Amino acid sequence: MNILYNDGAVTVFDKLSGDNEYDVGNKLINARFDGRGGVSRYAVINKFEALDYLHTLFSIDGIPLNFSEDKTVTVIGKKMTVKLRAKKADIEIRQFLSEDDNAVFIKLIVSAIEDISFKAVVNFGVNYKSYMQEFFLSRFSVTGLLKAASGMLKKHIGITKHEIKNDITGDFYIDFASDNELIPLESNFMFVNQFKTETYIKSREARVINVVMSSGTRNDFSAVKASELLKKIDEAEREADDYISSLKRYPEDVSEKEKALYASCLNCALSNYKEKGRFKGFLAGLVYQFPARTYFRDGYWTCLPVIAVRPEAVRNQILTLSKGMGRNGECPSAVKSSFKKYWGDHCDSPSFFTLLLYDYVAHTGDFSILQEKAGRDTVLSVAVKAVERLANKRTTQA
């Protein structure tokens, strides 16, 4: 397997069988593309891991693609592009996220060398373990329990020519939409777990098949209509490409590997920024989504490279942290999306909060943040109380 670095992007030369997983994230979700047109994870902030797996199998004229075929996989920002040449067609798979939507966007571009019948079969499994675990550990409520239970009594599957809607429980859906017909192949009473889309392409012609998938809960912040998002797939790709351009802030005289390293690190920081209502901040990583929370220490180090690129995101981080601080200056390790404290009274949190506030104001000149509300106080007053409490605190707790 060879690797090429070019203008911030990383390209891997491999066989179709190779696992080339890549994590992407936007303000609502994290996903992982597998390098073969599949999605190996999908998680919405404060929800659960929706997928156990999602595999895509491609075939031409009824013959599955040979897994020993050569492919290139290029990743940067919120986008993965897979290219491979089969005997009768060139295939390009683009998977990407927009800035705000709870969805994975997929473009299949098939350029026929001769007349062909092209088919893609999608198989997926539901991550019941994560759903049940997070339901009781981080999302439990009587209302949620009743909603999940009532959903079991309703119709679970909705199928039209261009959309498959799966209501697995009352608070868990996985939907797919495409501009090409979606044909169910396998299902249980809860969801369609295998479907196909196919088309005929004449020699020297190309066909684009657009697909959108989404998972979440109906009638809450995560709910979207996959069929509506399908209409904006070109706009979503422009957003993904504009985001890629924003990562290219490196000087021209550094090596291609250093450019890729910088773009990847900046993307990693920005991908952990999430928004859910008034909660707006940087998660500490993929495993900190349930419950969604932002840490004082981790958030500080994440924000340092981001201040010059997305100062508004750093401002939101400060406001979110300030709303989770005690009126006496007590700071927890983290602030949850409910603005409740997470993991007690931490001695290092006041220092990191004050450092972040100073660095933000020094870089942006935005003194107005000091007078923003933080509960009944202002951001400045909670920062002063936190430092004073830290100075007077006599304990070895950290």
Structure description:
With about 400 residues, this protein is of the alpha+beta class. The longest helix has 17 residues, at about 350-365. Helix 7 packs antiparallel against helix 8. The protein folds into two domains: about 1-245, Glycoside hydrolase, family 65, N-terminal domain (Beta-galactosidase, Chain A, domain 5), CATH 2.70.98; about 270-390, no CATH class. A hairpin with a 3-residue loop joins strand 3 (about 20-25) and strand 4 (about 30-35). It has helices at about 130-135, 140-150, 225-230, 235-245, 255-270, 295-305, 310-325, 350-365, 380-390, and strands spanning about 1-5, 10-15, 20-25, 30-35, 40-45, 50-60, 65, 70-75, 80-85, 90-95, 105-110, 115-125, 155-160, 165-170, 170-180, 185, 190-200, 205-215, 275, 280, 295, 335, 340, 375, 375-380. The two termini are about 45 Å apart.
Task: Provide a quick synopsis of the model.
The chain has nine helices and 25 strands.
